[in-house]
Every structure is written in structure tokens, then in C-alpha cells.
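Entry 14. Structure prediction run on the chain below.
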Amino acid sequence: GQDGKPVKLLHEDKAVPGSRHCPTSYSLSESYAFTPDGKPAVLAVLVQRFSQGFEGRDRRFIAVTGQVR
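Output returned:
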């Protein structure tokens, strides 16, 4: 990472699920961090998934969550 610490991988697909209908691209949409008192921070990242739809590009969102340790 930019701070010299290793990058933490929250999720990695081994294969693209059929429910995603041939994605053409992905991009980050939003990210949120929450730090409960005395506990590790929790992250929620929204990833945009684009695919070709009937009337142009379709956009759907995938939520990825994890704890910062």
C-alpha cells in the first residue's frame, strides 16, 4: 500500500459466477469504514459491475466487506 504496509485482499473470485452475466468491467463506487469502540475497523466496499444489456450498459453493485486487522 501507499503507507508501506502490505495490501489486504478482501475478496477474490476463483471464477466469475453465472449470475453476473458476462461482466465487461468493474470499478470502485464507494467505500465505508466503521470503527466500533475497542474493536478492529470494519470495511464495506461497493464495486460496480458493468455488462452489456438490451439497451446499453447495465450496472449492478457488489458489496464486499471485511475487518481491518
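Residues 25-67 form one domain.
Filed with the rest of this week's runs.
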